[in-house]
Predict the 3D structure of the following.
Amino acid sequence: MPLVKVPKPRFIEKIQRFFMVDLLRGLKLTLKYNIGAMTGADPVAGKGIYTEQYPKNRPDVAPRFHGAPRLNMDPETHDTLCIACNLCALACPEDCIDVIPLDIEVMVAGKARKKKVLDEFIFDTSRCMFCALCQEACPTYCLELTQDFELATYSRAGFVWNREMLEQGRETVKYTR
Amino acid sequence: MLFFLPIDFINDLLLKFFSADMVNYVVWPFIQVVLVISLVTGWVAAANYLERKVSAFMQARLGPMRVGPWGILQPIADGIKLLTKEDFIPDKADRWIFFIAPYIAVAAAFIVFVVVPFGPDWAVIADINIGLLFVLAVSSVGVLALILAGWSSNSKYSLLGALRSSAQMISYEVAMGLSLIGALMFARTLSLSSIVSAQSGDSIWFLVYQPLGFLVFLVSGIAENNRAPFDLPEAESELVAGFHTEYSGFRWSLFFMAEYAAMVVVSAVAVTVYLGGWYFPFVYQLTEAKGYHNLYVIVSLLVFIGKLSAILYLYFWLRWTLPRFRYDQLMDIGWKWLIPASLINIGTSAISIFVVQALNGWRGLKTIESLSGGLNLTGTGKGVMIVLGLVGLGVTGLLLGRINWRSRDFNLKSQRRNIKLVNIPQGKPAVPVVASEG
């Protein structure tokens, strides 16, 4: 009673082994890839080379990718769309958003009214898990997670984004070659 | 030929300063040597780039792309990096041997180029009448460098690499030398230029007479050069880097140069002996016969380089296709297959030459044209010889397959097939089996 069943090679397999068919198959495969890489045509996937030359050619991320946060502004007046409602901070499961409002006096129809406006917005990207629940919660489409994915910084403090960074975007070096 | 005027012009210029003997035997050889050394060094740089590119393409990658257009300046960047690295000597290393080993490797690899016939006439530096013997003898010294390097490094990985290298040399050097003898029976000379002219006089490659010899030579040549799949002395996944683990900087790059130069040497011998060297059909009739001597040499040179690059591509191709052999498999291939195959090849070649000679004049058959420059056969003789060569290949394969059939039991696969359960007494289980409640 054999422990491991290894089938005995059949006659055709012996012949194949004798003529080193497996070796020739391997050589054929590598040659196919080599020619495919040089001509840019791979029968498997339609392209010969899969390398993405990252800093030079930026990759296309998926359409539903969640990246760096951004506070959108009114395109005409360039005022922030944020109404300091704190819904995003409440929605955030990681508790990484701090909305700091400010009460100002505004004149509405001749009467002095208090209005809550945004003073400072703190977004800790080191704790963010990019679930985009804040984006879902935002009633004015102000907070948005963009497709930008280069978030690395030199210090932990650099991960904490303030209002200016969120509105203007962080300055990153774009390598083109 | 306007293009080749400078060669004649330089010759005339040299004759004004030196005697004719001096020019022919000192000045021109010196120029040839400088040219060959610079070409081979250039090849090493190019091979560095090409190997990385070929490997990248075979894995659907791009390879070096950042230094220069398509990364073409990468070898220069690598060279500068290697030259500026620290020349590190391990503690308690055998200093002098450690210093000398890379130079032995490079010298052994480069000296062989003296006899390699790159082309006819002035494209060969020295046509000595024991050319092939010289190649085999000197290229084997390269292995000595590996052994010395491994021994002197005072490192276990290097020592293991050196041990493997010496064992590999013993296994494969024999097969390499023996496999050439079959081809030498047709050429009837050891001079490499005469081997090429024997093939061009017959207008045939010895490959078709000697398929078995070519196969054995190619495999043992790859093993001799320590290239994958036979790169056991420097197996990076097992022995860090094998014999050159402790080498860095310039000394390491010397080993690198030696490896790639040795590759060219073995490929050049394979091309010369089996693939007709610089001979190509119609080249002679189109150039030399019409009086363009220098053009003939240059075209032959290009033909030689073309054949050489085909074999060198095969090296890369095999490297990136096959995984490394296990050590016992390597010895198995060497001793059980290649050496007997090359011995049988000598026998079958001798028999087939005897048969062809016996057929000459039998019932008006004419097989041998002349014996002046090698064995020149007529069309019938060639046909008989090719058939006999293929028959020899088949017979050798079957014979060795039959002989090695039982000895392959060392292979675990066969053992596994025969494993039987030993009759162990089935004692009481320590924990009584709980009867399942049905």
